[in-house]
Amino acid sequence: ERIDWLRPRGAMTAFPRLRGVDDARPFCVAAAKRGVLVAPGDCFGAPQHFRIGFGLEMPRYPAALDLLGETLRAGA
Q1: Comparing 36 with 75, which gets the higher pLDDT?
Q2: The pTM is what?
């Protein structure tokens, strides 16, 4: 309910948009403090978005998604 996104077609990254915010950078900073690196969309001219890669080893990926969920729930 806080994120909009289009499923990537064969790419290793996604570019979700945070609903209701003008700048996703604070979310990206909060995620980094929890150990998950995502790129803020303002680096790509789209400040409401963030870039997430799918290149992690799969056993660690679910934990990273859980940390992103915690970051969203914390209101970052």
Answers
A1: 36
A2: 0.84
Residue 76 has pLDDT above 70, yes or no: no
The token duo for 49 is: 């978005």
DSSP-assigned states of every residue in the chain: --EE----SS-SEE--EETT-S--HHHHHHHHHTT---EEGGGGT-TTBEEEE--S-GGGHHHHHHHHHHHHHTT-
39 token code pair: 């790129």
Backbone angles phi, psi at 69, to 5 degrees: -60, -40
State pLDDT tens for residues 3-14.
Answer: 998 888 877 888
